[in-house]
């Protein structure tokens, strides 16, 4: 036996026990308060923000768990002003004298927020939880009259600092983007539908049009309770695609009965919601029908139909949430046109372009409160999805189409050892079964007929993800919290190539994604003037499109499988300081990514090579709340580069600025909201021997305005909304067929121009292209049955 080693181990154990005892002693001397937050119907409310304002000026906050309970350490017993906020509810403020004999508090929110309110809740940098460990997390609510695109397709909510763009009009799904991340590619940004505490993925891996696309058109915007965003790489509950951003849409557990008509001279939208008269019953169904011709010169002849429905049961110690979504959409559409020539070509280079999509989602979540310390969640979802998209990117009309089913399931258990130590463990499973993932190229340039077509790609694909995960969260004294987690990814890619069977393969890949966060708050002592701070690190991944070709003369499986997995390593520092009712937050971030093959080129079916890259960014936000509203500004600066060449990442924005204000006490009883969004320069193409010219995107600015006037205690609401915009969104570059000029028939290429039978890559004239932006104004009228609030 090694005596020295034995002594060292005994000494280490003694030190750990001593540290544990000291920490426990320190905890016992701190005043702690706990309790429950209830909604107006008396049900426990998860995710409510509870803030304790002390007479010294200190502000201490916490968030209720899934059972509506909260606990918080206080600097001392005494008089506090307690604020309770929750998305969709009016803020409640109480003056309380707290002492050791106070016992558990019961805080009730008395009324639902008025339809004009915007609620922004940012996670306290010094407060992290097992479900929300990312201190940069932000949750925002928009009511139906203040949507980003009222009465039109697109993202239902405009998230400040996260612009939206698309490469087409009509119903084509737009994508959020962030500084340094290309917007229309979709891959490194995750989207989820929250059902209870379950995150059902809305990303479509290996999508026929663009890998990882997510379609926000599926929501009836009136039933959305909130949308949350975080850094993506720092939470074990978030998996594929969550490299740079995760956006989480959360439906409301309760919806008042309503009917809303929205429109302008070219579009009309009707939505309605039904719910039980008894407000204690958490059930609703909402439907929406939309018809219109859009804002561009080419008429869309758009039709959209959707339903969203939810039911929440509370049998005993269980809370069971069921969600159903259905969507069908069809439209003709403009597409990318040479910048500056949108009017001349009627906003399309090919009038045959159109899009058809339908999808259905069923999801369930069961939260079982086993006891005071244990909670077990069981969840699952099933989805079908179909896409048929006709586009022309300068080298001929193509059709991208697919049908898929998606299944997912998750089981997770959390255990609270003490008020300052808790753990989470579980297993997540997701499977995409994509059939007829096809790319077809049409051979006719006649704008009135489709003509014969040639198949470029035809694949059946299965992507499976099996991910056990574990996380722990704890307090290290009154000022420091920590979170550490590990997600063990096991990914299967099964690619059956119908055209080139030799390129088919089936293989698994395994890798670890660790995550960690440490957060510090200064408290009320001598360091109270310092900002709260947190530092996070995390690894993440996404699966690129497996429909790629192996290098000549190499083993197909080895080369193919070396590329479609992209790994990332992220680091994030967040600083936050509250001064009065003003919150200042600064986030520094750095993400490195591995080399990979990226999205499929729509004209030749080949994957684009992306080398290893580094993204550095800084985001600063200032938010000030006053008695009748708030104002918030966000400024982001980023530098994204290819590590091999040192050149900037193409199409990645370098500067984003956003200013948002909400005013609830305007003259004549009006409630207002205005937002200005600016996306600065970004490099589109650095040039090459064939096209030496460098292209840079023209900056884009948008101003959104919304006004609403409630009548009859809020039952009747009249609204006006609009947008002032110039320029082109979705800017990129495309190469056009030889000899094509503005005003000609649709460009087209013959097959095999470079000796490859089904390659249509004939473009010789490169152009900067985009979608022409149009200013608009519209109106809405809404009736809420029963109590308008």
From TrEMBL:
Cellular localization per UniProt: Cell outer membrane
A Pfam family assignment: CarboxypepD_reg
Stored InterPro entries: Beta-barrel_TonB_sf, CarboxyPept-like_regulatory
Keywords: Carboxypeptidase, Cell outer membrane, Hydrolase, Membrane, Protease, Signal
GO molecular-function terms, A-Z: carboxypeptidase activity
SUPFAM superfamilies, alphabetized: Carboxypeptidase regulatory domain-like (SSF49464), Porins (SSF56935)
Signal peptide start-end: 1-26
Cellular component GO terms held in the UniProt record: cell outer membrane
Primary subcellular site in the record, as a coarse category: membrane
Protein name as annotated: Carboxypeptidase family protein
């Amino acid at each position: 036996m090694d005596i020295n080693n034995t002594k060292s181990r005994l000494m280490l154990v003694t030190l750990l026990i001593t540290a544990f005892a000291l920490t426990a002693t320190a905890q016992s001397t701190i005043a702690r308060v706990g309790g429950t937050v209830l909604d107006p119907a008396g049900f426990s409310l998860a995710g409510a923000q509870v803030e304790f304002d002390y007479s010294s000026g200190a502000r201490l906050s916490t968030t209720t768990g899934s059972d509506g309970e909260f606990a918080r350490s206080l600097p001392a017993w005494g008089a506090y002003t307690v604020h309770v906020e929750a998305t969709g509810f009016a803020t409640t403020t109480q003056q309380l004298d707290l002492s050791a004999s106070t016992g558990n508090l019961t805080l009730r929110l008395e009324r639902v927020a008025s339809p004009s309110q915007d609620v922004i809740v940012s996670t306290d940098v010094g407060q992290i939880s097992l479900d929300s460990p990312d201190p940069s997390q932000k949750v925002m609510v928009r009511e139906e009259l203040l949507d980003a695109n009222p009465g039109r397709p697109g993202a239902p909510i405009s998230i400040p600092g996260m612009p939206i763009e698309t490469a087409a009009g009509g119903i084509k799904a737009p994508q959020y983007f962030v500084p340094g991340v290309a917007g229309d590619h979709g891959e490194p940004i995750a989207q989820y539908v929250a059902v209870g505490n379950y995150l059902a993925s809305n990303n479509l891996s290996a999508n026929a049009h663009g890998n990882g696309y997510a379609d926000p058109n599926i929501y009836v915007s009136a039933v959305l309770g909130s949308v949350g965003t975080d850094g993506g790489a720092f939470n074990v509950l978030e998996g594929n695609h969550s490299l740079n951003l995760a956006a989480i849409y959360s439906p409301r557990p309760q919806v008042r009965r309503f009917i809303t008509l929205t429109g302008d001279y070219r579009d009309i939208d009707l939505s309605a919601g039904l719910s039980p008269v008894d407000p204690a019953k958490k059930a609703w169904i909402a439907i929406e029908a939309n018809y219109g011709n859009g804002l561009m010169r080419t008429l869309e002849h758009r039709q959209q139909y959707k339903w969203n429905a939810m039911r929440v049961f509370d049998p005993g110690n269980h809370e069971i949430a069921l969600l159903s979504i259905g969507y069908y959409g069809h439209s003709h559409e403009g597409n990318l046109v040479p910048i500056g020539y949108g009017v001349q070509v009627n906003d399309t280079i090919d009038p045959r372009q159109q899009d058809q999509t339908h999808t259905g989602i069923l999801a369930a979540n069961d939260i079982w409160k086993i006891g005071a310390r244990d909670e077990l969640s069981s969840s699952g979802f099933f989805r079908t999805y179909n896409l048929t998209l006709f586009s022309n990117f300068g080298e001929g009309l193509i059709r991208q189409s697919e049908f898929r089913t998606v299944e997912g399931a998750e089981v997770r258990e959390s255990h609270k050892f003490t008020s300052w130590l808790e753990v989470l463990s579980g297993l997540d499973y997701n499977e995409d079964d994509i059939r007829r993932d096809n790319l077809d190229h049409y051979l006719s340039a006649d704008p009135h007929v489709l003509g014969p077509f040639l198949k470029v790609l035809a694949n059946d694909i299965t992507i499976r993800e099996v991910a056990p995960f574990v996380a722990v969260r704890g307090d290290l004294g009154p000022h420091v919290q920590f979170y550490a987690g590990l997600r063990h990814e096991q990914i299967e890619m099964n690619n059956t190539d119908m055209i080139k069977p030799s390129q088919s393969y089936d293989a698994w890949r395994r890798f670890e994604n660790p995550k960690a966060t440490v957060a510090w708050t200064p408290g009320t002592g001598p360091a109270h003037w310092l900002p709260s701070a947190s530092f996070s690190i995390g690894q993440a991944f996404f699966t690129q499109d497996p429909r790629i070709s192996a290098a000549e003369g190499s083993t197909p499986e080895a080369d193919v499988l070396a590329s479609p997995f992209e790994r990332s390593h992220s680091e994030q520092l967040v600083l936050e300081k509250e001064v009065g009712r003003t919150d200042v937050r600064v986030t520094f971030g750095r993400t490195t990514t591995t080399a990979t093959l990226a999205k499929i080129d729509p004209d030749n079916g080949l994957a684009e090579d992306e080398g290893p890259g580094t993204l550095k960014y800084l985001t600063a936000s200032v938010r000030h709340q006053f008695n009748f509203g708030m104002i918030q500004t966000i400024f982001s600066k980023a530098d994204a580069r290819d590590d091999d060449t040192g050149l900037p990442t193409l199409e990645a924005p370098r500067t984003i600025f956003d200013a948002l204000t909400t005013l609830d006490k305007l003259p004549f009883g009006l409630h207002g909201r205005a937002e200005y969004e600016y996306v600065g320069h970004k490099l589109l193409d650095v040039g090459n021997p064939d096209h030496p010219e460098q292209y840079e995107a023209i900056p884009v600015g948008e101003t959104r305005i919304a006004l609403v006037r409630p009548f009859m205690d809020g039952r009747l609401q009249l609204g006006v909304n609009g947008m002032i915009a110039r320029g082109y969104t979705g800017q990129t570059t495309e190469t056009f067929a030889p000899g094509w000029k503005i005003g000609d028939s649709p460009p087209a290429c013959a097959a095999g121009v470079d000796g490859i039978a089904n390659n249509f890559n004939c473009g010789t004239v490169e152009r900067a292209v985009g979608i022409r932006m149009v200013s608009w104004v519209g109106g809405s009228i809404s009736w809420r049955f029963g109590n308008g609030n």
